[in-house]
Design brief:
The chain is α/β, with parallel strands linked by helices. It is built from 17 helices and 14 strands. The chain starts with 12 loop residues before the first strand and ends with a helix. The structure holds uracil.
Length: about 475
């Protein structure tokens, strides 16, 4: 049995955490300190990377052993919301983060609703740290670029160099393992490295830029892809820099094109307008639906593609008269891997048949191939994709259109309409009449079926009639030009 170590009045304590991202040890020690009634100004924290949240550091005055919890100490209170934010905030490189978290934990014991106080400086700081970390996690998912390397035994390994701003490497490991499970890969960073051999994930020491290879032939493909999807008419340099900060450019083969593309944007825009350019000519577009289905599975060109969910490909006959485009897969669709099989799909089916449209004869797909959601407890709540995300995913929709060659394309809702037309039309103004898409193809837009679900009873009846009428017009047009 170990002797109890009590808090001496005026004593202060130092906790040296073994790892910069060690949330578990911080949580255990913080609980113990709260239960021993050690106030925040009597504790300092450090990590091997030098993180040191105090003026004192681990100086000679610190007690050698942490105090024991008082036997009668109550349970430490920490809401799930706090633990979730704290779990992210510890990954920040701010040396004050552990001290901040302990101060908050301490204050939560007497003010359990503290996190609701949006004006509290500690709460604001915590939320800020967590936000920055979430962004860094996303940036890594979006901007890691693997280069192929042949190892001495002749096998292929994909190696990437990345410079995270915070301690997010380990937190992102599961994402890369799930996403690239069948490849052998390494991600090297100045904070450590990850290695996956197809079965086991291991960690390695920090690396240097020169440890990673510089480029490989596959990069030409990335470049051609990026050049083909770059739309000069929508160039917003500020937004682009925010999404893709310069610091990541050097690891991204396609970024080498940016200065030239930006410089030539005006000229290209004019050329596009006058020539009605086909942006995909020669861009390495997939040549079968099976290839589309396979490639979208590893697409990380936008934040939705990076969220770790399964991509949902379109389905239907190879040469349908009609292609139906929805917004994005929902929870059920993501689970089953098929479009429009959940509640919105069932509602759609109820209208298609009576309008004279055979769903089985149509190719059904979505503007965005991954499910965008917000986690709320156990539920995944739908989130609308941004215009930028739709525009990135449009490449896949155009690839599908080029393969299935439908005479008619029906877009359901604003996201699908944007994907179809490359602009955000007014559905009220443009519904119910064909839109010329070129190549003898007619586009049609109407509302999304789930819009009907959100209306009050009276309004729903009216809107449902309009929706049915829009579908009937498409069916008529299909009969006239099968
Ligand atoms: N909503 C859509 O837009 N598409 C689906 O596949 C499912 C729901």
């Amino acid at each position: 049995m170990t002797a109890m170590q009590h808090v001496r009045p005026g004593a202060w304590y130092h906790v040296a955490l073994p790892e910069a991202d060690d949330f578990g040890t911080w949580r255990d020690q913080a609980r113990r300190l709260v239960q021993a009634e050690v106030p925040p100004d009597r504790v300092t924290w450090s990590t091997p990377d030098g993180g040191d949240g105090s003026l004192f550091g681990a100086g000679p005055g610190a007690e050698k052993r942490l105090p024991s919890p008082r036997p009668e100490a109550p349970q430490v209170r920490a809401s799930r919301a706090f633990l979730a934010l704290a779990g992210k905030a510890v990954l920040h490189s701010d040396p004050e983060r552990f001290a901040l978290l302990y101060r908050l934990l301490w204050r939560l014991q007497t003010r359990p609703q503290l996190l609701d106080d949006a004006a509290d400086a500690d709460v604001l700081k915590l939320e800020g740290l967590a936000r920055v970390v979430r962004r860094d996690i996303h940036k890594m998912r979006a901007f890691v670029r693997f280069r192929s390397v042949i190892e001495p035994d002749g096998s292929e390994r994909f190696v990437a160099w990345f410079e995270p701003s915070h301690h997010i490497l380990r937190a992102n490991a599961r994402f890369f393992v799930d996403r690239f499970a069948s490849m052998r890969w390494s991600i090297l960073t100045p904070r450590g490295s990850l290695h996956w051999d197809g079965e086991v994930l291991s960690e390695g020491p920090p690396a240097q830029r020169s440890d990673a290879p510089d480029g490989d032939p596959a990069e030409d493909l990335w470049r051609r892809y990026y050049a083909s999807t770059f739309n000069p008419a929508r160039l917003k340099i500020g937004a682009m820099l925010k999404e893709m900060p310069r610091k990541y450019w050097k690891n991204m083969p396609e970024a080498a094109l940016i200065p030239a593309l930006v410089a030539g944007a005006q000229a290209r825009e004019a050329a596009m307008v006058s020539a009605g350019e086909n942006r995909f000519e020669g861009s390495g577009r997939p040549d079968s639906l099976a290839e589309v289905a396979m490639q979208i599975g590893t697409c990380t060109r936008c934040a939705i593609g990076c969220n770790g969910t399964r991509a949902v490909a379109g389905e239907g006959p190879e040469r349908p008269a009609l292609m139906i485009v929805g917004e994005q897969p929902g929870d059920t669709e993501e689970t089953e891997g098929r479009p429009f099989v959940g509640p919105a799909g069932q509602l759609l089916d109820r209208y298609l048949g009576p309008a004279g449209i055979d769903r089985g004869a149509a190719y059904v797909t979505n503007a965005v191939k991954h499910f965008k959601f917000e986690q709320s407890g156990k539920r995944r709540l739908h989130k609308t994709p941004t215009a930028g995300e739709i525009d990135i995913c449009r490449w896949w929709l155009e690839a599908e259109t080029a393969l299935v060659k439908p005479r008619h394309v029906l877009a359901l809702g604003a996201s699908a309409a944007r994907a179809l037309l490359g602009r955000s039309p007014s559905i009220a103004r443009e519904r119910g009449k064909p839109i010329d898409l070129g190549q003898s193809r007619q586009g049609w837009i109407t509302v999304h079926p789930s819009y009907l679900l959100r209306l009050s009873d009276g309004a729903r009846e009216l809107e449902a009639e309009r929706f049915a009428a829009d579908l009937a017009l498409v069916a008529d047009a299909m009969r006239q030009s099968p």
